[in-house]
């Protein structure tokens, strides 16, 4: 059994998301230009939570969508086919500021795939990246605009984000001794 | 997620979980077809060979478009234009295609088991696009996908397959897929074309068409395959239409929510009346659209299904 130690508990996740929401509001003056797109799977409930928080700050609804990047991955012939989740972007992204939301930023390859996938839906004015945890070990020149918590990790560790929307208790844990 | 297969050769060997994996994956690919940009890079740089030794138009076009939407490179081989006409064996043809570094071979062949044979002799992923009277797995997958999307489930539904069962690979693949997912399958048609031996596959066989459609949630009509039949199987197309064709009068005996399917090409006035084929309860054109999503999903899944050892070796 791999050893698991907690990084963020439920109130800490809530605080991190609240701070990210305020940072998004601070960085984007024209609130009507901002849309949130969560990367399947844990990014989607996180994007919805950020959407609710931002709606409270701005006093208006923030459009929220979901994006599955499976078809745009660069390792499709090196692994079993990933489980494809729905992509639902019920608004036009052209000319918008798209905030991509993911749970953990690691190699950066998911973010690259997400930016490629987003191209098929339009031409955003800009793309920003919000993540709950940045664990380092980037393999591509990608940097998050909004980070909940920076966590130094080893390659053989796994950062797991559990959320109530996915049938668990809100928690971020680091599991040691697991292969990537 | 349960898919670890390099080939799609038949439905018989699939587990219910594997079938559901294809259906779930296909739902995401159907959404791709509804976008302004209907193309994803999942098979970029991969080569697909469509080896259609037996003539086919709609299945080949459906596979071609699916492959293009996955960004694969495509070569089409047809029986008329290939060296098979000059006496080359299937094995030699396939080995030549493999020498072109094909990653996938989609094969339609008049001999049952031809795709299984290819899977044994060459390294590419093989997808069965119909082999003789044996199986047509992607057709069955798109049929159960269409049923699940329309009815919300497959388990517990009454599905009646009406027509030429004996010579139909579509019927065999559908029977496997439907029974694995828990549907109740009834077969009906002229007794010469619906032998009782199909009861061993877990189906009910009846020769009374009105009884066959009375409790059906889905009526799947199969084409009378003139080209595969000896002339003695039933007296005439006119008699078939009278005894088994689906017309307005006959459809009144079915439940009002019963839906009608047909793998195409339809013979208007034989197995189906024109006004039924074009009515709101007909899913025929939806089946065509869903066929693209299913074929994209299958190609996407077998691309990843190299087996755990092979994947580990690459790391």
Give an overview of the whole structure.
The complex is a heterodimer of chains A (about 180) and B (about 325). Chain A has helices spanning about 10-25, 45-60, 110-120; strands spanning about 5-10, 35-40, 65, 95-105, 125-135, 145-150, 160, 170-175. With about 180 residues, chain A is of the alpha/beta class. Chain A has a domain at about 10-70 and about 90-150: Rossmann fold, CATH 3.40.50.2020. In chain A, the strands form two sheets. In chain A, strands 3-2-4-5-6 form a five-stranded parallel β-sheet. In chain A, β7 and β8 (about 170-175) form a beta hairpin. The longest helix of chain A is centred in the N-terminal third of the chain and has 18 residues, at about 10-25. By secondary structure, chain B is of the alpha/beta class. Chain B has two domains: about 15-135 and about 290-310, Aspartate/ornithine carbamoyltransferase (Rossmann fold, 3-Layer(aba) Sandwich); about 135-290, Rossmann fold (3-Layer(aba) Sandwich). Chain B is built from twelve helices and nine strands. In chain B, α4 links the parallel β3 and β4. Chain B is globular. The model of chain B is unreliable at about 305-315 (pLDDT under 50). Classes of the chains: A alpha/beta (about 180), B alpha/beta (about 325).
């Amino acid at each position: 059994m791999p050893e698991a130690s907690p990084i963020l508990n439920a109130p800490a996740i809530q605080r991190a998301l609240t701070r990210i929401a305020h940072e998004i509001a601070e960085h984007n003056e024209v609130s009507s230009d901002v849309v949130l797109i969560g990367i399947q799977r844990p990014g989607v409930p996180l994007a919805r939570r950020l959407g609710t928080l931002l709606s409270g700050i701005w006093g208006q609804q923030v459009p929220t969508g979901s994006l599955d990047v499976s078809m745009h991955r660069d390792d499709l012939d090196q692994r079993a086919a990933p489980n494809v989740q729905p992509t639902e972007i019920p608004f036009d992204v052209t000319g918008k500021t798209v905030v991509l939301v993911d749970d953990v930023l690691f190699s950066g390859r998911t973010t690259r795939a997400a930016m490629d996938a987003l191209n098929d839906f339009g031409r955003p004015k800009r793309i920003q990246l919000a993540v709950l945890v940045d664990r380092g070990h980037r393999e591509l020149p990608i940097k998050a605009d909004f980070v909940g918590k920076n966590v130094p990790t080893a390659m053989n560790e796994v950062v797991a984000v559990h959320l109530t929307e996915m049938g668990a208790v809100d928690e971020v844990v680091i599991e040691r001794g697991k292969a990537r | 997620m349960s898919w670890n297969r390099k080939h799609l050769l038949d439905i018989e060997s699939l587990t219910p979980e594997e079938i559901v994996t294809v259906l779930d994956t296909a739902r995401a690919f159907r959404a791709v077809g509804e976008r302004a940009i209907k193309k994803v890079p999942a098979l970029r740089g991969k080569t697909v060979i469509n080896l259609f030794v037996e003539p086919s138009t709609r299945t080949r076009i459906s596979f071609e478009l699916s492959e293009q939407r996955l960004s694969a490179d495509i070569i089409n081989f047809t029986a008329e234009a290939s060296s098979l006409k000059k006496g080359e064996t299937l094995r030699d043809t396939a080995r030549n295609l493999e020498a072109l570094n094909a990653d996938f071979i989609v094969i339609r062949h008049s001999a049952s088991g031809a795709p299984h044979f290819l899977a044994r002799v060459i390294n590419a992923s093989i997808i069965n696009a119909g082999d003789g009277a044996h199986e047509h797995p992607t057709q069955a997958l798109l049929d159960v996908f269409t049923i699940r999307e329309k009815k919300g489930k497959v388990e517990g539904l009454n599905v009646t397959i009406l027509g030429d069962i004996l010579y139909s690979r579509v019927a065999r693949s559908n029977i496997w897929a439907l029974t694995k997912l828990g549907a109740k399958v009834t077969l009906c048609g002229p007794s010469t074309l619906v032998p009782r031996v199909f009861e061993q596959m877990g189906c009910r066989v009846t020769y009374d068409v009105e009884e066959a459609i009375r409790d059906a949630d889905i009526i799947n009509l199969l084409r009378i395959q003139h080209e595969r039949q000896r002339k003695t199987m039933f007296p005439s197309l006119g008699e078939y239409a009278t005894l088994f064709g689906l017309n307005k009068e006959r459809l009144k005996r079915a439940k009002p929510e019963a839906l009608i399917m047909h793998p195409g090409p339809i013979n208007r006035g034989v197995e189906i009346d024109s006004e039924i084929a074009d009515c709101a309860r007909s899913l025929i054109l939806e089946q065509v659209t869903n066929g693209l999503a299913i074929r994209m999903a299958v190609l996407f899944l077998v691309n990843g299904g190299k087996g755990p050892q092979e994947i580990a070796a690459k790391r």
